[in-house]
Amino acid sequence: MKQPERYRHCKVDRREAIRLLAGFLASSPLLLSQKDPFRDHSRIPSIDELIDVLDFEALAYEKLPRSAYNYTAYGAAGEFTLRRNREVFKWVELIPKGVVNVSSIDTATEILGTRMKFPIMVAPTAGHTALHPSGEAGTHEGCTAAAETPMIVSHVASMPIEEIAASASGPIWVQLYPSPDIEANREPLEKAQAAGARAVVVTVDQEAAFYERALHDRNLAGRRSRRARLPRRDLNRYRIPVKRLWYEWKLFDELRSLINVPMLAKGVLIAEDAKRCIEHGLDGIVVSNHGGRALDYSPSSLEVLPEIVDVVAGRVPVLIDSGFRRGSDILKALAFGASAVCLGRVPRWGLGAFGPPGVQRILEIVQAELVMAMAHSGRPTLTSIDRSLVRADLP
Q1: What pLDDT is recorded for position 395?
Q2: Residues 78-104, buried b or exposed e (16+ Cβ, 10 A)?
Q3: Is this structure's pTM higher than 0.70?
Q4: Would you say residue 206 has pLDDT above 70?
Q5: Residues 191, 63: Cα–Cα separation, whole Å
Q6: Sequence-distant (≥ 6) Cβ neighbours of residue 300 within 8 angstroms
Q7: Residue 227 CA from chain centroid, whole number
Q8: Whole-angstrom distance between the N-terminal and C-terminal Cα of the chain?
Q9: pLDDT tens-digit profile of 254-297?
Q10: Residue 394: which pLDDT band, with cuts at 50, 70 and 90?
Q11: Which active-site residues does the annotation give?
Q12: What average pLDDT does the structure give for the chain?
């Protein structure tokens, strides 16, 4: 049968018909039923919509190059200790008091001459410009805006210490990777103290030289990806940085002449080392496994905290880092005797997600969670927090 003339221009082949049908179905309102009705898929959430720190991690993951995110995220070897740092909080229960006036919560404290409104500090971490153009200066701005939270500036920060210190008015400490040539430590220490650093935190653990997750991503674009290489055979037989194999206790005796502010050792995980810190005149201790980035299968910081607090016996402040994400995590460490908790990855997520306002907001969330946890547990002051608050099933 001959086709009418008026229909000839409408003829389509099978492929074109399928394309048109697919376009029709894709625009059908019936497909809305397949979407999550509780989430808006058309935009990135605003900073005020994020309710806990893990929300910031997901957003930082979306915004950052994979190599920059992985530098923040990875741990040593198979990342067992990285996971253990979080799992340990499941082994510690909070036991609240039932009848206590918690109409007012006081979280203010003072550590080695540094006054702080919360027992929370920002731990030293490197390379903040990979997360946001403002770099460590932006982190310091966010810390200052969040109740003047003290920031410990990394020895390998991506910006000069003078520039970081001048960016905001909040208190700063500085972290040092010491050199075996004691005189080589003079310049960075003098610069840090001239910039207003109120304490020096000397890292003493043997951080890993390479990370499996970084090696998997070494062919991705980005500065840190290009730096990730298979370990050289001639580096040394331990495959850890040669410049950190020489550590001896006399280091602290020699550094003392260069430091006019309190000095702490960071990376302590056993009571014996804590005792030696006291013997060598250190002013404080940071219990840390380097965020799971040193020796895999080492214990989590929280599980060794009680024995270190016991051997120190109140003679110097004991700080702690590695694995802390929530205000209730911080409360558990305070119950075991920590003077303050240092947050490492958490502010990095804030910086990567929103810049300095992200750092501020993420710290404010953790601060508010700590206040809430203290109120719910019937502990209105830091002095009212003790081990009766926790019931632990630690290995």
Answers
A1: 77
A2: ebebbebbbebbeebeeeeeeeeebee
A3: yes
A4: yes
A5: 34
A6: 81, 84, 85, 87, 88, 289, 322, 323
A7: 22
A8: 87
A9: 999 999 999 999 999 999 999 999 999 999 999 999 999 998 99
A10: confident
A11: 290
A12: 89
pLDDT of residue 258: 97
Average pLDDT over residues 229-240: 55
Which tokens belong to 276? 């030696």
Q: Report, as an integer, the average pLDDT of 106-119.
A: 98
| Pair 227, 221: CB distance under 8 Å | no
Other C-beta atoms closer than 10 Å to the C-beta of 291 total 24
Cα 57 to Cα 81, 159, 259, 356, 395: the distances in Å are 19, 23, 37, 15, 29
Segment among 29-33, 204-208, 238-242 with least mean pLDDT = 29-33
HSE (side-chain half, CA atoms, 13 Å) at 298: 27
Q: What angle in degrees, to the nearest 10, is found between the helix axes of 345-354 and 53-63?
A: 50
3-state secondary structure the chain: CCCCHHHHHHCCCHHHHHHHHHHHHHCCHHHHHHCCCCCCCCCCCCHHHCCCHHHHHHHHHHHCCHHHHHHHHCCCCCCHHHHHHHHHHHHEEECCCCCCCCCCCECCEEECCEEECCCEEECCCCCHHHCCCCHHHHHHHHHHHCCCCCEEECCCCCCCHHHHHHCCCCCEEEEECCCCCHHHHHHHHHHHHHCCCCCEEEECCCCCCCCHHHHHCCCCCCHHHHHCCCCCCCCCCCCCCHHHCCCCCHHHHHHHHHCCCCEEEEEECCHHHHHHHHHCCCCEEEECCHHHCCCCCCCCHHHHHHHHHHHHCCCCCEEECCCCCCHHHHHHHHHCCCCEEEECHHHHHHHHHHCHHHHHHHHHHHHHHHHHHHHHCCCCEHHHCCHHHEEECCC
Rg from Cα positions in the chain:
26
Distance of CA 25 to the CA centre of its chain: 46
Write out pLDDT tens, residues 292-345.
999 899 999 999 999 999 999 999 999 999 999 999 999 999 999 999 999 999
User: What is the Cα–Cα distance from 88 to 50, expressed in whole angstroms?
Assistant: 25
Identify which of 141, 121, 130 has the alpha carbon closest to the alpha carbon of residue 321. Answer: 121
Please, is 260 exposed, middle or buried when counting C-beta atoms within 10 Å of its C-beta (0-12, 13-18, 19+)?
A: exposed
